[in-house]
From TrEMBL:
<dbReference type="InterPro" id="IPR006407">
    <property type="entry name" value="GlgB"/>
</dbReference>
<dbReference type="InterPro" id="IPR037439">
    <property type="entry name" value="Branching_enzy"/>
</dbReference>
<comment type="function">
    <text>Catalyzes the formation of the alpha-1,6-glucosidic linkages in glycogen by scission of a 1,4-alpha-linked oligosaccharide from growing alpha-1,4-glucan chains and the subsequent attachment of the oligosaccharide to the alpha-1,6 position.</text>
</comment>
<feature type="active site" description="Nucleophile">
    <location>
        <position position="407"/>
    </location>
</feature>
<dbReference type="Pfam" id="PF00128">
    <property type="entry name" value="Alpha-amylase"/>
</dbReference>
<dbReference type="InterPro" id="IPR017853">
    <property type="entry name" value="GH"/>
</dbReference>
<dbReference type="InterPro" id="IPR004193">
    <property type="entry name" value="Glyco_hydro_13_N"/>
</dbReference>
<comment type="subunit">
    <text>Monomer.</text>
</comment>
<protein>
    <recommendedName>
        <fullName>1,4-alpha-glucan branching enzyme GlgB</fullName>
        <ecNumber>2.4.1.18</ecNumber>
    </recommendedName>
</protein>
<dbReference type="InterPro" id="IPR014756">
    <property type="entry name" value="Ig_E-set"/>
</dbReference>
<feature type="domain" description="Glycosyl hydrolase family 13 catalytic">
    <location>
        <begin position="247"/>
        <end position="594"/>
    </location>
</feature>
<keyword id="KW-0119">Carbohydrate metabolism</keyword>
<keyword id="KW-0321">Glycogen metabolism</keyword>
<feature type="active site" description="Proton donor">
    <location>
        <position position="460"/>
    </location>
</feature>
<dbReference type="Pfam" id="PF02922">
    <property type="entry name" value="CBM_48"/>
</dbReference>
<comment type="similarity">
    <text>Belongs to the glycosyl hydrolase 13 family. GlgB subfamily.</text>
</comment>
<keyword id="KW-0320">Glycogen biosynthesis</keyword>
Length: 729
């Protein structure tokens, strides 16, 4: 009777010990637990003949029979009758070996986490002409007393399909007939038998939106990729290639017509609208704010719950594959924001997954993030480390993602991040570095570059932590790139000043070159800079309407001249007036006005210039590619620099005037005699500039200037940056 109660109340820990086919010396028994059944007949599926019936045990839903004649069937089904009629099911509990197979190799390689756990579609080769299609479920809940898989296929009844606990804390079961598209969750009882909120699958590949947040069985083998040409082209040294990144929040880049009744553009609609735009604008990469499934729109994806599922707000997993595929076919790389630092407390998620801290640190001084009211992963647990590293590889494997921008790295590195003196726990050496997180990031980067050498990882790291983008074998964290938050902060602070005060802040625009080669930097003007009251990029600029636009154009061009890869958030490129709002679209209507269409035209031309001229990107991370020509002219607030390609084969000078005062006959030192030509002038009328007169071709003379043997005289427009190409003698 004890077994019946356990099964009835979904409290059975080891169903394989009781259910299914069990052999004895000269006989075998078959036992089934099928709620609401009135009779059960056993069918040998090889012969399709009945071998007997099971008997109800003590008016319960437990049925059993002992068979003393004949051999056990290789595979069998039940013909079940109930008050509603009859149906046939294949007994899940006869596939014990196949179920245990799910967790045999999880610990060997990170990839095995998403190849073995979750809901895996399998074919059961059991001697029939046609294999039996089934789904193998496996979930890690080491401190649970019982786990059941619930879903469409069993009316969400936790008593129907109890899972088997393994020695290592995984729960497993193979369920024939469960197919792609079926919804499911796990019903979990904690160590004391208390039922927890139904949990989505931590390794679920597809998830429904509110209110169910159900996981969905998904077949990753159906999509046929067409990006072979791209995969062959992306090989090569990323540091010497042009990289201009367009950062996008898919939910608010553009909204559907209000008549459509839809909240968002779908992945397919984004293919039709976003990709042509990015291609036309000349960006080399798209960077998507977190694409992993998340419950709250207002988190922008930075509070993810389903790390292995692309958000279904815009379509299914294959729709997102199609989006990435089409990006590649159009020559655009795809980077996604990846969030391994923390996760929210939503009941269907990872928090206290089995009633204990399975994924997060138990001590709130390490496991609770005060800034974001979220849980911090326990970076010291092997299972958590495998889970996170596997997830990084998963996106590169299943979705052909080209890069991972890792969010909030600083919060992972420091135990005292955003904490008061008595709110954190020192490491074993008494310091504030989280050694567990450091080693996790190093392992992740090693695995990524080992398996996907053409991919890249980018750290959003805001401190002076050493060697973030240096190899692990050199003692670094192993990232390919690091966001240059210092450059971003200093340059925005400078450009927001009234031009009459900029001479007192001149060093803010030059200081970045003191440390420019300590890391491999990306220069970011990201979403964080145009939200939460910070104002749009345009509104950061001082002055009247014309001066604001001119300042923005001058600053944007300075960014493209400065060493480092480039990143701009959507809306910057049209001079959006309002700060970003995730609940609405970019203000595309502004392009009806010359000011905004001119700013857009400048960004388009800057992207093209940056990509077309190796001097502007080839040595972004090599001191040989840069030289200050004039960085001491604080009084006039001008800056002049030289960018050159390998071995100085191509030389491009950039000079910026950060005041509204035009400077005729402005002299700039150059390295060689000969002819120079204007490549781009941000003050041109096509950009809504003043059209200040400028000779397109300039001849160098022997007048020494700026510690150079030669110089040129240029007409430097107000609030403008000018690019000048050395054409030769």
């Amino acid at each position: 009777m004890q077994l019946e109660k356990q099964l009835q109340h979904a409290q059975c820990t080891f169903p394989f010990s009781y259910l299914g086919l069990l052999k004895t010396n000269n006989a075998f028994t078959i036992t089934a637990w099928i709620p609401n059944a009135t009779s059960i007949k056993v069918i040998d599926l090889v012969t399709d003949k009945a071998i007997g019936s099971l008997k109800r045990q003590a008016q319960s839903d437990l049925f059993t029979a002992e068979f003393t004649k004949g051999n056990p069937p290789a595979v069998y089904a039940f013909e079940v009758k109930n008050a509603q009629g009859s149906y046939r099911i294949i007994d899940p509990y006869q596939f014990q070996d196949q179920a245990f197979h799910a967790v045999h190799f999880v610990d060997h390689l990170p990839k095995n986490v998403y190849q073995q756990l979750g809901a895996q579609l399998i074919d059961l080769e059991v001697g029939l002409k046609t294999p039996i299609a089934a789904t193998r479920f496996a979930v890690f809940a080491p401190n649970a007393s019982a786990v059941s898989v619930i879903g469409d296929f069993n009316y969400w009844d936790g008593s129907c399909l109890p899972m088997q606990k393994t020695d290592f804390g995984y729960w497993v079961l193979v369920v024939p007939g469960v197919k792609a598209g079926d919804k499911y969750k796990y019903q979990i009882k904690d160590a004391h038998g208390n039922e927890l909120p139904h949990k989505a699958d931590p390794v679920g590949f597809y998830a429904e939106q509110y209110p169910s947040h159900a996981s969905v069985v998904f077949d990753h083998e159906q999509y046929q990729w067409q990006d072979t040409k791209w995969q062959q082209q992306v090989k090569g040294d990323k540091y010497t290639q042009a990289m201009s990144i367009y950062e996008v929040h898919l939910g608010s880049w553009k909204r559907p017509d209000s008549q459509s009744g839809k909240t968002y553009l779908s992945y397919h609609e984004l293919v039709d609208e976003l990709i042509p735009y990015v291609k036309d604008m000349g960006y080399t990469h798209l960077e998507l704010l977190p694409i992993s499934e998340f419950p709250f729109d207002g988190s922008w994806g930075y509070q993810p719950v389903g790390l292995f599922a692309p958000t279904s707000r815009f379509g299914g997993p294959d729709d997102f594959k199609y989006f990435v595929d089409q990006c590649h076919q159009n020559g655009i790389g795809v980077i996604i924001d990846w969030v391994p630092a923390h996760f929210p407390e939503d009941g269907h998620g990872l928090a206290r997954f089995d009633g204990t801290h399975v994924y997060e640190y138990e001590d709130p001084r390490k496991g609770w993030h005060p800034d974001w009211n979220s849980c911090i992963y326990d970076f010291g647990k092997d299972t958590v480390r495998q889970f996170l590293v596997a997830n990084a590889l998963f996106w590169l494997d299943k979705y052909h993602i080209d890069g991972l921008r890792v969010d909030a790295v600083a919060s992972m590195l420091y135990l005292d991040y955003s904490r008061e003196a008595d709110e954190w726990v020192p490491n074993v050496d008494g310091g504030n570095h989280n050694y567990e997180a450091i080693s996790l990031l190093q392992w992740m980067n090693k695995e990524v570059y080992s398996h996907y050498p053409n991919a890249m990882t980018i750290a959003e790291e805001s401190t002076s932590f050493a060697k973030v983008s240096r190899p692990v074998f050199e003692g670094g964290l192993g990232f390919g790139f690091k966001w240059n938050m210092g450059w971003m902060h200093d340059s925005l602070h400078y450009i927001s000043k009234d031009p009459s005060y900029r001479r007192y802040h001149h060093g803010e625009m030059t200081f970045s070159m003191v440390y420019a080669y300590d890391e491999s930097f990306v220069l970011p003007i990201s979403h964080d800079e145009v939200v939460h009251g910070k104002g749009s990029l345009l509104r950061k600029m001082p002055g009247d309407e014309w001066q604001q636009a001119a300042n923005l154009r001058c600053y944007a061009a300075f960014m493209y001249a400065h060493p480092g890869k480039k990143l701009n958030f959507m809306g910057n490129e049209i001079g959006q007036s309002a700060e970003w709002n995730h609940d609405s679209s970019i203000n595309w209507h502004l392009l009806e006005f010359d000011k905004h269409s001119g700013i857009q035209a400048l960004y388009r031309d800057l992207n093209k210039l940056y990509a077309d001229y190796p001097a502007l990107h080839e040595l972004d991370h090599d001191p040989a590619g840069f030289e200050w020509i004039d960085h001491e002219n604080a009084e006039q607030s001008t800056l002049g620099m030289l960018r050159q390609s390998k071995e100085g084969k191509q030389q491009v000078y950039a000079v910026s005037n950060f005041t509204p005062v035009p400077r005729s006959n402005f002299r700039l030192g150059v390295k060689a005699p000969g002819e120079y030509s204007i490549l781009l002038n941000t003050d041109d009328k096509q950009y809504w500039g003043s059209g200040h007169s400028q000779n397109k071709t300039i001849k160098a003379d022997k007048t020494p200037w700026n510690n150079q043997a030669y110089s040129i005289s240029v007409s430097l427009p107000p609030l403008a940056t000018v690019f000048i190409l050395y054409k030769g003698q």
